[in-house]
Design a protein that fits this description.
Two copies of one chain form a homodimer. Chain A is of the alpha/beta class. Chain A is built from ten helices and 15 strands. In chain A, strands 6-5-1-9-10-11-12-13-14-15 form a ten-stranded mixed sheet, sandwiched between helices. In chain A, strands 4-2-7-8 form a four-stranded mixed sheet.
């Protein structure tokens, strides 16, 4: 079972309006809400690809019941933990012209006591897990070492960990030696404090993350594919340009990579499956959804080769 | 006690952002939420002006506890009624340049059974009330005669009613003979199906509302003051131009007018007090707040005269 932990779960509301106009009052033509956050998306994808998963995470007051109802209705097993602050919400406004405009709340401020209790809660779930995915930002108030404690708790129990985070929280998490650090180019910048342009620069950044403690590093590059730093080799993944909704593509990558590694298959296969899932997820208008058939079709178009060597078809 | 009924209570969220840009992702710098809706604002104003009030209304699933907590923390007595649909939310985005952009959800769809139970709930509250204020739109699913039933229930018990609504719901409500129909120019248009420009046209519209059953009619005209159609006279209220936040000014007007009438004072006094409260409320950055001292100061600047006759200082 792949356990995902989203430490700042949100209720994602989507509003459909005719046209977004600053200064105007908009009657919302259609509103829908679903439980969101990177780890939640990863679990949705794992379930859609046929894997076993449990959603855990922190949710603000009043949000637990609604989130559990919604996740269970979507067929997901969950073990959420409620804190006193108000539930985080995000609002995404979709206009008829296709523009999407988003407003992201920071989320409830978590006390030290709450975070400690939450760590205990996650430890209790690790016995059933073959893989732990820590994904998304920390809520306000959580200590910088928050993810580090969770990585350490999992590795102590020989549960492999994928961390998808950024900044100080990511740096701290790396010190506990996760199996994989996974981020995109912007998150790599936020973690190492400088920008990364060329693939050579990205490889250099990935090496720094390994020096900080990660066993493997995956940096996704959007249309530019991904770079994977394994224990011995460096891999470059590429795919033909694909249009669609990029929101959630990174989470689909993480989901498929986690499933592949949890099944004991090698790192380059995880990169290939991850990239295929990322491309397939572009077809879904909402984050957190991917069709297994689309992943199989996309996998035929993904190429992987050792970085700096000639391209070979996977 | 002034009982307010808001049949479509909302959780009003306010987001503060640096600049609103269509197509961008905005980190919300500050988010706060309060229970909203016209009747709720009226009760807030009544309480701030020293009156006794109870907030009633329909609230969607999961919203009851939060709304009651928030209203009681604000010192308001409340008796809300929960329905199964999801709580209505509104989001107002305030940018640093002062632009406010709003997104209003329609609210939960109410079943016939739910509405009937809610009517019973309100009937049970009328024994304690000296005045009933019905304010705001109906939720989706509520019958057009919904407000009519509530007006009839109150007048049967000799509780005077002020209705602040529009369209078919307002027309239906008038048939049950409320003490006052109160609306603004846009609501008058929506109720009678044509636009109203000059004061003479507004007076004509007010007469039509009286023909439909209202004993008195108040049409607020923003910076243009208000027109009041009493049982014998027509009144025009004017005040000097005033800047500020116009959202909630109409609710402050209703609150002060309701308090004046509930105290047995004459209709023109209610117009004067209402207009003063409306002007005073412009000073508050959020709807539903007014300072008693500001109302007294504003009252000195409000003039009232019989419509079509020379101005006399009130």
């Amino acid at each position: 079972m792949i356990l995902t932990v989203t430490s700042n779960i949100a209720l994602d509301r989507t509003y459909v309006v005719d046209r977004l106009e600053a200064g105007a009052v908009h009657k919302v033509r259609l509103a829908f809400a679903q439980t969101g956050g990177k780890g939640v998306n990863v679990s949705r994808n794992v379930a859609e690809l046929g894997g076993a998963t449990v959603v855990s995470g922190l949710v603000g007051a009043g949000g637990l019941e609604l989130a559990e109802l919604e996740l269970r209705a979507a067929g997901l097993d969950c073990a959420l933990y409620e804190v006193a602050g108000e539930t985080r919400q995000t609002v995404t406004v979709t206009a008829s012209d296709g523009t999407t405009t988003a407003f992201d709340e920071a989320g409830p401020t978590v006390t030290d006591t709450e975070w400690c209790s939450f760590e205990e809660h996650v430890r209790g779930l690790l016995d059933r897990a073959s893989m732990l995915v820590l994904a998304g930002s920390l809520p306000p108030g959580a200590p910088d070492e928050a993810l580090q404690h969770l990585v350490a708790a999992a590795t102590d129990r020989e549960v492999a960990v994928i961390v998808d985070s950024r900044g100080n929280a990511m740096r701290a998490a790396l010190a506990a030696g996760p199996l994989v650090a996974k981020l995109n180019r912007a998150e790599l910048s936020e973690t190492l404090g400088r920008s990364f342009g060329t693939d050579d620069e990205v490889v250099e950044g990935a090496r720094e993350l390994r020096d900080l403690g990660a066993h493997n590093v995956i940096v996704t590059l959007g249309a530019g594919g991904a770079i994977g730093l394994g224990s011995d080799e460096i891999w470059k993944v590429a795919h033909p340009p694909a249009a669609g909704n990029p929101i959630g593509a990174g989470d689909a990558f993480t989901a498929a990579a986690a499933m592949t590694l949890a099944a004991g298959r090698p790192f380059p296969e995880a990169l290939l499956e991850g990239a295929a899932a990322g491309v397939a997820s572009l077809r879904s208008p909402t984050a957190g959804h991917v069709e297994a058939a689309d992943v199989r079709a996309a996998a035929l178009q993904v190429e992987i080769h050792e970085y700096g060597k000639a391209t070979t078809r996977a």
